[in-house]
Amino acid sequence: MAAPAPSTSSPTPAPATARQFLAWRPGATASGRALNLPPC
Questions:
Q1: What is the superkingdom listed in this entry's lineage (predicted)?
Q2: pLDDT (tens digit, 0 to 9) for every residue of the chain, 40 residues total?
C-alpha cells in the first residue's frame, strides 16, 4: 500500500522502483523463479 502512494506523488522514480519493488516482494521473497510467474 506504500508503493501506490509514492507512485502518485513521484511518477518519475516510482515506475522503475515500484515495478522492481513489487517484483521482488511477492516473487523474489517467496521464490526467485516466481518472478517470471504472476503474483497471483
A1: Eukaryota
A2: 555 555 555 555 556 666 666 665 555 555 555 555 565 5
